[in-house]
Known about the structure:
The protein contains 15 helices and 25 strands. By secondary structure, it is an alpha+beta fold.
Amino acid sequence: MGASYSSCSHSSTLSTHTLLHSHPKATAFFHIRQSGLPNPSFKLNPTNQIFQTHLRIMAQPSQVLPLQGGKVEVGETQEGSGTRPLLDFHGIDQDLVEKIVYDALVWSSLHGLVVGDKSVQRSGKVPGVGMVHAPFALLPMPFPESHWKQACELAPIFNELVDRVSLDAKFLQDSLSRTKKVDAFTSRLLDIHSKMLEINKKEDIRLGLHRSDYMLDEQTKLLLQIETNTISCSFPGLGCLVSDLHRSLLNHYGEFLGLDSKRVPNNPAASQFVEALANAWTEYNNPRAVVMLVVQADERNMYDQHWLSALLKEIHNVSTLRKTLAEIDAEGELLPDGTLVVGGQAIAVVYFRAGYTPNDYPSESEWRARLLMEQSSAIKCPSISYHLAGTKKIQQELVKPNVLERFVDNKEDIAKLRKCFAGLWSLDDSDIVKDAIERPGLYVMKPQREGGGNNIYGNDVKEALMRLQKEGSEADAAYILMQRIFPTVSRTFLMRNGICYKDDTVSELGIYGAYLRNKERVILNDQCGYLMRTKAASSDEGGVAAGFAVLDSLYLT
């Protein structure tokens, strides 16, 4: 589970060596958020101690300037400010920063670190139209190696936990019974689950591609879990590339920055996701069948998905096709032996990159498609049981005393899980609700939703809880309360749409896990790469695709 430091397996072999010191003036821009800083002497003193000083740039607040218009300066971190610096710069001129920004943009373009540009109408439908670099941090985020190893070691334990929870139908139905009454989306998922129980549908081959998300709490220094994701875990393709980008930049500029590229850990997420999908395809044992990606009709993040499809074909000779839920309803059929056929093509594995939000089910057509796939013999990633096992309510139930023991036998594994659990409570806990109303800043209110932009923070928590109390209905069953985690704040540079923004930020570490079993035989259970996301500290939400965060990588300390 320790870190290795080779490059991401799906990166292009194109070299940026000849680009680094021979380009024209950069056309990127800095968005500056501070001014009035002292003017130090410029003396470059590279060092590996990265928590002492940081870059500052002279300009008016909230002003966008061309690179040649601002003056790069270095100032000491203010004690007691709560801000951890990104890098130790004792002196740097603007040309060096300009080169790093320019080379990062060139590297991203050459290596496929791209998404669809939302300003271009067809960018989410037609590949190659309206591409822009994915949002990313200019340099990697410092992270303690001990906590990195802890997160990696937890991945196979969580993989096994999700599998065991998914097999306990009564636990899933009972735990979500109150939620079902007030949450229409969860209710429809549970209805499908119930239908599978009625026909005694067994998922002998079970594939999970999960991600467990964590933040490092500044006060306690504990690595605390935010959530477990069991459906449509995005960015295994592009997140892997960001690690390569940062390693490339440090290979060329590390001497000036005082950083070692070998401290950016290997991120094999794409290749290991693909290996898991290929192994599942093999277990299905129909060489004419394909892997089907269930996608949204307008998908600006299609290139993250296309990386996986390309690698499946190139490495494992497994073909893929992409279909929306509506297309599956129109073109899909179930053969008498349970085989799922879509557009005349037999399906071995259904890999969901959609279907996690009510927005993906605008009509009964999409729900018919979901039911059809669940009824089939195709391997679902995830199955309806895995999907339900990843809900916020189930996460909250697992934190309760003696519940983990129902699913996990090893006492050491139970202790490791409990160590990373943040506080989670049902809204029927009157004492916690009372405290959350009095101190709303210490809590997050979460509905049973995925995809970012759904949680409730700050004074809105108080208002929502008081409204629910006044209504006196069971609507509170749609939510859980979670302890709010306060990670360390770091000053860093964020790249979006060719513009470099400087801001105070916080980061969230996601660890991918792959799990595959056929009946009693566990074929794969491992950690498989990571997703680092960094966002402005002033932002409550954190999704990259939702527009709140940027992709990042780790610099192990």
